[in-house]
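Table S2 (continued). Query chain:
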Amino acid sequence: MGRQSYSHEVIAKRLPVVGVMGSGSRPHRERSQRVGKWLARQGVHLLTGGGSGVMAEVSRAFCEVQPREGCVIGVIPCIDANQPRIPKHGYPNPWVEIPVFTHLPVSGPAGTELLSRNHINVLMSTLVIALPGSEGTASEVELAVRYETPVIAYIDSPDQIQGLATPVRIEPDWERLKQFVLSVIADP
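Corresponding output:
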């Protein structure tokens, strides 16, 4: 028997990936919900670290919007580099639709080290929005600058991201934040 050929048309649209980084313990509900719901209406995928706090809240808000084009992607750390099949406790959160399990256990203040998933978070993102957080969020901002991924901090002041040492555009104004995001996703 010969090989049968099929004629079919695949219609697929590559969507921009917006990484939202922030606290792994505090949800910062108002900002997270505002960002998540708005992004869900913009025809993008949402990427987070897949954990709790801002990561869970922005993912939940994104998932609440129906219909939507994009999915929630979570880049998941493992418990230990020697046990890559076991995710850290609490990962992925219930709203992660596409978990990307990694062999990378490092996070927090060591977030720029090579065994941190933060590199993947930033490199997979078309742009990064940083919400209030701690050293892990600061390291993601640092990596975004290093890898030349457009980044903006949706915060009122630099002290809302603990350990933020990297110069980054801080934007407390919702409308200007949206303009920045739209300008980047319109021309990825």
